Amino acid sequence: MNSGGEFCPYFQQAAEIIGRRWTGAVLRALLAGPLRFSQIERGVCKISARALAQRLRELETAGLVARRVDTGIPVRVTYRLTEKGKALGDVVARIERWAHDWLAPRGISPHVPTGEGGEGRLRTPRQVRHQHRPGRGDARRGTRAGPGGQRRVR
């Protein structure tokens, strides 16, 4: 590790690969294991199919993701992290920890619940900001919590 002020072209190259929009979220989704395109698309909030396809191609070119085509009926394409991609697991986890510590509002979970056993998928910053807080009411509907936590119309 270069602790001085010297320029490191390898660091810059790595930062450009993983610093592209949606790349971190795609890598995070694939850390769980091989996924089909639609599964990645559902797991990464707000990404368009075009942007996802572009990121997957870039990650494949960089050697971080491998694409596998199963030629059955129907044809299934799955994506998985290569060893090089899996080696970024600790980096992604540390970035996520930093984001929780420094970017997420206090007391608000940045994860969308998925039910039993699932941690959930990440919310976008806008979704986190607009997460319902008990007792605040909902100005759009003109409601607020009444006695016993029941909703009532103003």
Walk me through the structure.
The model is unreliable at 114-119 (pLDDT under 50). The termini are far apart. The protein has a domain at 9-111: Winged helix-like DNA-binding domain superfamily/Winged helix DNA-binding domain (Arc Repressor Mutant, subunit A, Orthogonal Bundle). The protein has helices at residues 9-18, 23-30, 37-43, 49-61, 83-86, 89-102, 125-129; strands at residues 35-36, 65-70, 76-81, 111-112, 121-122, 143-145, 151-153. The radius of gyration is 20 Å and the shape is globular. A 3-stranded antiparallel β-sheet has the order 1-3-2. It has a two-stranded antiparallel ribbon with strand order 4-5. A two-stranded antiparallel ribbon has the order 6-7. Helices cover 40% and strands 16% of the residues. By secondary structure, the chain is α+β, with helices and mostly antiparallel strands. A hairpin with an 8-residue loop joins strand 4 (111-112) and strand 5.
